[in-house]
């Protein structure tokens, strides 16, 4: 009830980080193009296989200062069983996914105060998700209405003929190609979420799409992982070229993120070959890094930013870039560009990382030496409790549908899901 939401509100207000004046409002009114890199782990960045870069295009965005991207190399996914759906939820609501199942499925009709809804209400943004799979996967066609997403371009908008599909659905190259005319026609400013699909377990690829040889660990999924990553990288380059050609690149905020791991710990033997290191519990946690990169027009890229951070931090960061104070909203993350950004990254199981130490499966480790900390300090123990408390509060919001009882400010209007209807026949 309303007492519970007051406790949550007190917590998120206490965690809140003030915006950084250098960034606040710098992206206001700009189109936002958010690009989902399916199953993409950060170890792929700069990784060389057979003496070749696997993802030369993404590597260029990371290293070439003139591209003006900022790449967070200590950014982690925080997903659980909801996988992609968890990543979507966490990034668009700054709430954690649930410890079990997928909130998209089980809490799909909850009240949300999401990034697309806030942008729509406060700055007249039009929002859309583009994804070459059936609309009901992960209950998207229901939950998107509650997130206030205006348009959902699902598989029915794309040419799903045999040569265009593999594995779960549309291949990334035709996906980006066919999305371009829709994107060009969208009312501006827009918040467009482009969700790729080909780089998904078990990493199937047609011969004509494979431009790098598989790895040679003998574990098929791991071996092909590099081939579909290369295909994704090429599809991105093609998309960037098209955006540039259509004049949509320069003046847009471009955000790129990885949703979750692609190689589970069932593949540790092969991953030991790939990384040249033993996959200990700590190493496995280290491998949960996914890319987060962002370019904001008129803002100089920082190159590589080492801040420890996670998907939960994305929504407050975006709000501040657009000049909307995150303080009013219930958010468990903090602005990545804030001086006061909270440098701890909770994982869904209560493990967490900070810049100095991590807590993994019951043990504390020093981030530099990788050694077990035999006598953790009181501060470390307190942080462990705080992480659990934070996750519990977030769960209360979802289980109790508590945002029903919360009014962020006088501008806010609850999202009315019945106002949204998806499908070609209604466009
Ligand atoms: C399906 C796609 C994959 O539409 O988002 O979901 P995942 O299996 O990665 O959660
Ligand atoms: Mn996924």
From TrEMBL:
Residues 30-324 form the Sulfatase N-terminal domain. It comes from the Bacteria. Keywords: Cell membrane, Membrane, Transmembrane, Transmembrane helix. It is found in: Cell membrane. It is a multi-pass membrane protein. Pathway: Cell wall biogenesis; lipoteichoic acid biosynthesis. Belongs to the LTA synthase family. This is LTA synthase family protein. The lineage of its organism: Bacteria, Bacillati, Bacillota, Bacilli, Bacillales. The chain holds residues 216 to 642 of 676 of the full protein.
């Amino acid at each position: 009830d309303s007492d519970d939401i007051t406790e949550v509100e007190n917590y998120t207000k206490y965690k809140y980080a003030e915006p950084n004046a250098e960034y606040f409002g710098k992206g206001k009114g700009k189109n936002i193009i958010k690009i989902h890199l399916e199953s993409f782990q950060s170890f792929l960045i700069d990784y060389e296989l057979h003496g070749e870069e696997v993802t030369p295009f993404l590597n260029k965005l990371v290293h070439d200062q003139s591209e003006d991207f900022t790449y967070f190399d200590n950014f982690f996914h925080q997903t659980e069983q909801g996988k992609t759906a968890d990543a979507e939820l966490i990034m668009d609501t700054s709430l954690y996914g649930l410890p079990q199942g997928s909130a998209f499925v089980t809490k799909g009709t909850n009240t949300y105060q999401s990034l697309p809804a806030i942008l729509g209400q406060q700055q007249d943004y039009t929002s859309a998700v583009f994804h070459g799979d059936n609309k009901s996967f992960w209950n998207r066609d229901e939950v998107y209405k509650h997130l206030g997403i205006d348009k959902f371009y699902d598989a029915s908008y794309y040419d799903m003929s045999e040569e265009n599909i593999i594995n779960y659905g549309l291949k990334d190259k035709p996906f980006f190609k066919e999305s371009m005319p829709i994107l060009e026609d969208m009312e501006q400013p827009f918040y467009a979420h482009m969700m790729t699909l080909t780089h998904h377990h078990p990493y199937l690829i047609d011969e004509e799409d494979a431009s790098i040889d598989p790895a040679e660990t003998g574990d098929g999924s791991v071996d092909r992982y590099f081939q579909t990553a290369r295909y994704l990288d090429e599809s991105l380059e093609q998309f960037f070229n098209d955006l540039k050609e259509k004049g949509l690149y320069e003046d847009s905020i471009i955000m790129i993120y990885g949703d979750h791991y692609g190689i589970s710990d069932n593949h540790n033997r092969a991953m030991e070959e790939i990384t040249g290191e033993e996959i200990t519990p700590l190493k496995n946690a280290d491998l949960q890094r996914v890319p987060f990169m962002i370019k904001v027009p008129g803002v100089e890229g920082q190159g590589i930013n080492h801040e420890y951070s996670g998907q939960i931090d994305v929504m407050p960061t975006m709000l501040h870039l657009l000049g909307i104070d995150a303080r009013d909203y219930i958010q468990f993350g903090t602005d990545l560009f804030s001086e006061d950004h909270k440098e701890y990254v909770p994982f869904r199981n209560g493990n967490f990382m900070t810049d100095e130490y991590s807590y993994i499966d019951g043990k504390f480790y020093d981030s530099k030496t990788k050694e077990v900390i035999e006598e953790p300090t009181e501060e470390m123990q307190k942080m462990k409790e705080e992480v659990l408390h934070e996750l519990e509060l977030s769960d209360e919001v979802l289980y109790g549908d508590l945002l029903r009882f919360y009014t962020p400010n006088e501008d806010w209007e609850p999202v009315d899901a019945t106002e949204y209807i998806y499908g070609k026949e209604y466009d």
